[in-house]
Amino acid sequence: MENIKRKSRKFSRFKTFLIQRFIFLNGILSIIILGVILALLVYNSIKFFAGYPALSFFGGLKWSPTNDKFGFVPLLIGSLLTTFASILIAIPLGVGSAIYIGELAPRALRETLKPIIEVLATIPSVVIGFIGLKIVAPLIKNIFHLNIGLTALTGAVMLAFMSLPTIISISEDAINAVPNRYRHASMALGATKWETTYKVVVPTASSGMLAAVMLGLGRIVGETMTVLMLTGNSPRIIFSFLQPVRTITATIAAEMGETAQGGLHYSALFAIGLILFLITFIINYVGDSFNKRIGNM
Amino acid sequence: MTGAGNFMIKTDKSTKRAFLFAFLSVVSIISLLFAVVLAGCSSATAQTSSKGGSQAEAGSKQFSNEILTVGGSTTLLEVSNMWAEVFMEKYGGELTLNGGGSGEGIKSLIDKTTDLANSSRSIKEEEKKNASDNGVDVKEYAVLWDGIAIVVSNNVTVEEITFVQLSKIYKGEITNWKDVGGQDALIAAAARDSSSGTGEYFLQEVVRLGSKDSQDDYSDKCLLLQTNADMANQVSENDNIIGYIGLGYLKLAEGSLKPLKVKADSSSNPVNPSVDAVKDKSYPISRELYVYADMNDFSIIAKGFIDFILSADGQNIGIEAGFVPIK
Asked: Mind giving me the DSSP string for B230-288?
């Protein structure tokens, strides 16, 4: 009798052990996947970094795979231009609506707006691209009297649209995390509602808002389908928002399927993928470390 | 609850919330459906898979228990689909078709994950070497001709164009319609990505005027578009753009685009792009489309499928899809 009891206790302890291990594995799975992705990118881009001079890659002014010229500068500028324009549009809109929703809107309106904004995040990027192609591109062509509507700005407008849910909901969290006693103290000193908002609440929530912007930025930099459809993809060096540009993501998406696999071009695409990965990783890391401060407030 | 919002009576709030939730669910479902329909219409790199015959018919046809995978060029995807449907109906078997691009298809053939590879360009030396290293004996079948039409919007007054003019336009040396006989308006050249089969062919034969040693490339001002549909869309809505699309797609987009007559050189006659003109070689911009097979692992159904493609029936389907028969 004693023996059986001990056995069953032993078994149950073993079961607990197994379950714990299983959950542990689940927990670190995403880290493993991240590691594998990084390793894969590095492994596939070794051939390129070994076979192509680093200077003509990082300093190269021409991206022309058919001539074996893999200059990174045009792609980097393309990505930077679109991202910059996009974040310029997204910051005022995103932070503005977060302040309105978190601070000024009547309760019923706020409860309606928040979920709708989250639905916005679920629209597939190809649909956003489609809308951009049919509505925004002709609009931009006509407004600025251009000969083509597929420009950095066109992509940027739609990307801003896509990053809004991230920026709004995280900014709004930051505003919500501002303790009520700050508001009460400010009101007690005779400040109006608006003065309280922009002199007390917004400065207090600013690090959270910065996090929101950074995470939105991460979304923008990595977005592919929309820019592929909307930015025209000309790989040239230009500093205008009203001309076609070619981003890093669009280059990979457009060229990966057709290139001879295992070749230099293939490896070059992995190399720019690796750089893109590092860029988004850093942006998200910075954003996340700002985000943590919200909790410590 | 932070900030100073309007407080409401509790019961009112909970009913309101329930109502709101229902409303939002409906909205999101509708928008999702809408999204799916849109995505279905516009997705360029579709992947299709179809199963042959019904279970009841299995066993009664020549290849009924055989399986065949075909992958590669998106140019050939649509017509391959049509071939596969008729083939499965006639001879049975189960065909799976993948898009993904010419490079992807050839890579899969080398990796032995696909039985046949569609390609809109001929296999590269690099790929041939990889194949033989991997024990794959690649054989090329030219299955169809594809003519490439130069298109502009209906409002452009230019009627014909020479190779040299095209080359200059795509290299960025001619930037105004008036230099090729049109109105005083800027030209925006739209090309396909040079890593796509179509884009590469056009670069070699037109932009480089067929010269093997030429290092010329598309001007970096060229728009680089991804699909025939993109091209047709952009050209039809914009009087500045010049572009090129496959003959098959021109047929689909009839009326919304204006094909230019092409002259190989200034002394030759301008030729309108048509199936007949491609067939008798009078239209100068056309190329072959290929299916690649592995001779070391050439299944009877793979052979059957290629025989079918090259048969009169198969070639007629090709014509239906806007291509030009190979013989």
From this structure: HHHHHHHH-TTEEEEEEHHHHHHTBTTBEEPEEESSTTSPPB---HHHHHTT-S--EEE
Of A251-260, B13-22, B312-321, where does mean pLDDT reach its minimum?
B13-22
Give the sign of the dihedral formed by CA A76, CA A78, CA A82, CA A88: positive
Q: Which of residues 120-139 of B touch A (CB under 8 A)?
A: 124, 126-127, 130
- Nearest one of B261, B294, B61, B46 to B158, comparing CA atoms: B261
CB contact under 8 A, A260 and B127: yes
How distant is the alpha carbon of residue B129 from its chain centre? 27
pLDDT, residue B14, reads 53
Choose from A150, A202, A258 for mutation: most chain B CBs within 10 A.
Answer: A258
B166 band by pLDDT with thresholds 50, 70 and 90:
very high
Residue that the structure tokens 């893999």 belong to? A70
Query: Which residues on adjacent β-strands are paired with residue B95?
Result: B68
Tell me how many degrees the CA angle B310-B314-B316 measures, rounded to the nearest 5: 115
The CA distance from B312 to the nearest CA of chain A, in Å, is 30
Asked if B193 lies within 8 A of A254 by C-beta distance, the reply is yes
Q: Tokens in use for B219?
A: 């001007």
Q: Tokens for A285? A: 């890391």
**Partner A contacted by B176 (CB < 8 A):** no
Residue B41: count of CB within 10 angstroms of its CB: 10
pLDDT band at B29 (very low <50, low <70, confident <90, very high): low
Strand, helix or coil for residue A95: helix
Residue B24 in this model has a pLDDT that exceeds 70: no
- The conformational region for residue A246 under phi > 0 = left, psi -120 to 50 = alpha, else beta, is beta
Of B3, B126, B193, the CB nearest to A103: B3
Residues of A with Cβ-Cβ distance to B17 under 8 angstroms = 111
User: Could you give the CA distance from residue B302 to residue A237 in angstroms, rounded to a whole number?
Assistant: 47
Determine which helix (DSSP H) or strand (DSSP E) holds A250, and give its type and residue range: helix A248-255
Test A263 with B126 for CB contact under 8 angstroms.
yes
Cα distances (Å, whole numbers) of residue B318 to A153, A289, B84, B176, B303: 41, 58, 12, 37, 18
Here the ipTM equals 0.71
Dump pLDDT digits (tens) for B227-241. 788 888 889 888 889
Token pair 């597939």 is found at: A124
* CA A76 – CA A58 distance, rounded (Å): 9
Average pLDDT over residues B305-316: 93
What pLDDT band is residue B53 in, cutting at 50, 70 and 90?
very low
Q: Average pLDDT for residues A271-292, to the nearest whole number?
A: 89
Q: Which two structure tokens, joined as six digits, stand for B245?
A: 């699309």
Q: Which of B25, B28, B193 to mutate to test the interface with A (most CBs of A within 10 A)?
A: B193
Q: What's the rounded mean pLDDT across residues B102-123?
A: 88
pTM: 0.75
Q: Please indicate whether, in this complex, the C-beta atoms of B28 and A119 are within 8 angstroms of each other.
A: yes
